[in-house]
Structure formats: structure tokens, C-alpha cells
Design brief:
5-stranded parallel beta sheet, two-stranded parallel sheet, 7 helices, binds zinc ion, alpha/beta, single chain
Length: about 190
């Protein structure tokens, strides 16, 4: 499971609680502008065995900005995360959208771009039950599930309660299929 657009005080804490309750570990692709305001949450996320990786400094769509702007945003994010003890190796691009030069920016900074295999569309406000049903067919070894522990631009909901509820349901379904929920960096199928 992966969570983008946080950390956000209430929802990240609740997602962490749900993950702990389910015995699941995950990857959080954070916005550095939010992470610097929540150092305690970042620390807790790491201490509980999850990964903290890069989403961006601001939430910029690479195809709508020039290369310099994205390089500056990325370097500002990495500098801010470094202060928090976070040195990302994975990068979830905002909206998953790369420009032609995005892979070079990633490679220059030792970052591997991480996509997803199953989209919960939780930002729309779907119920946990609907989201489990939507991703169940994709849930197999190596599957990366996209969800959000923060409200990003364009979110059609006013909270992440259904995402919190989804965590336990998804971990249970994974368990029934003999799968463990681990951070992307530990996911053998992805780290190939
Ligand atoms: Zn995002």
C-alpha cells in the first residue's frame, strides 16, 4: 500500500494506526512542504517500520512546468527531507505524470520513479467497500496500491476516513491470498 499527499496530522495518524492494527507496513510519498510541519509524524512513520519517500515539495505537474522549476522543487524537497532524516530512493510523481526530462532528473538524484498497479481512487470519496472491490482483481504479489493520506489538489472529499477503513480490509484480503503488505522498497517484484 502506498499513500500520497501527506503528512496530514489527523489522517496520517489514523492511517498509521490502521496499518499497525492490521500488521501491515506501507510507503508514504510525502510532500516536503507538509513534512516539515509534521516532523513528529514523519518520525513516527519511520519508527513504525514504514518508508517515507518523495512525492514533491509542492504538488507540481511536470508537464505544466519547465525543467528548471521541477529541478528546484525536487532539490528543495530533498533538502527539507534530509533535515528530517529522510533520504528517498523512490519518487511518486504528482498525478503520475512525467515530462520527457523527468527520468533524467530522477536518475541524477538517485531516484527510481514508482508508479502503481491498482488505483483506489480514494480522492473521489469512494467507500472502503467500493475501493476493495475495485482493486481486488489486481491484488497479487508485487502489486502497488495507490491511496492518499492527505487531501491533494482536486480531492472530491473532505477527509480520509474511508482510506483509513480501507487499510484493514485490504490487508485482510491480501492475507487471505497469502500476501504480506510491505513498503515498495522491500517489494521484490518492484525492486527488480
Ligand atoms: Zn499527489
Amino acid at each position: 500500500m502506498t499513500f500520497d499527499d501527506g503528512p496530514q496530522p489527523r489522517w496520517t495518524a489514523e492511517v498509521l494506526g490502521a496499518l499497525a492494527g492490521a500488521g501491515a507496513r506501507a510507503t508514504f510519498f510525502v510532500l516536503a512542504t507538509k513534512a516539515v510541519r509534521e516532523p513528529g509524524l514523519v518520525e513516527r512513520t519511520l519508527a513504525e517500520g514504514h518508508e517515507v519517500q518523495l512525492h514533491g515539495n509542492h504538488h507540481l505537474r511536470h508537464t505544466e512546468h519547465d525543467r528548471d522549476t521541477i529541478e528546484r522543487d525536487t532539490d528543495a524537497a530533498l533538502a527539507r527531507l534530509d533535515v528530517l532524516g529522510v533520504r528517498p530512493s523512490l519518487w511518486r510523481l504528482p498525478w503520475g505524470r512525467a515530462a520527457s526530462w523527468t527520468p533524467e532528473i530522477a536518475a541524477d538524484r538517485g531516484l527510481q520513479i514508482a508508479g502503481w498497479d491498482a488505483d483506489t481512487h480514494d480522492w473521489r470519496g469512494d467507500t472502503a467497500a467500493a475501493m476493495v472491490a475495485a482493486v481486488a482483481g489486481d491484488l497479487r504479489d508485487g502489486c502497488i496500491v495507490l491511496a492518499h493520506d492527505g487531501l491533494g489538489p482536486g480531492a472530491l472529499r473532505d477527509g480520509c476516513a474511508e482510506t483509513v477503513a480501507l487499510v484493514g480490509d485490504l490487508a485482510r484480503l491480501a492475507g487471505e491470498r497469502g500476501l504480506a503488505c510491505v513498503p515498495v522498497g522491500e517489494n521484490g517484484a518492484v525492486a527488480r
